[in-house]
Amino acid sequence: MDLGIQLAALIICACAVSSEDIPDLEDSIPRFEQICDLFAKDSYFRPNHLVEGKRWRIYYTWNIEMRDRCVDMTFEWATVAATQRLWSDMHEYLETEPPWEAALLLMTMGSRDHQMMLFPDQGPAGRMLGVPNVRRDANVLIPKKSVPLLKFQMRIMNINLQPFLVVMDCITAVTTLSVKADVIPPYKEFYHAASLQVPYPYGKPSCIEHQQKFTEHYKKDYEI
Length: 224
Description:
alpha+beta, Lipocalin
């Protein structure tokens, strides 16, 4: 796998302990971009719904296994200061620079506070370009002009009045389903309903131990 793609994938997931957790999918990138286009059909996405000061927790994944790892994400509006910091760290290492003046969201992920700036891309609602700050996060030497811009399709889905956030990486195919961390974790029927709209098979639950403890506590308190 291309070094830039590998580094970016590791930071995006904020959960992979080695490059072996990310499959070598480079030859399939054009197909993954087509799948992103399919997933984006009739997409609903409003960035202000993400910027509410609440954490989103990943509870289900496709094309990567997180098992008991619990990974939270937060979103905030991209400020001039944050954009300038990222430019200073990354502009020499990017294959192609994004439209820095169009920076929209700063996403922070995982216990190590991995950060990525998101920029609106051409195409359907929720299509984003991403610049992860791999220079601060990666424990390897990064050659200059080696890190590609990442491509995502983000989509907010409502299932039984419960909002879900799906983030699909159009380069690595890694896809995550998140719900706000302060609500009851979704049950299997929610996963099934979401899976019908995500065009990848074999999704896997994540943050499993936390989900089980939360569910047992909920059932005990409400005598389900």
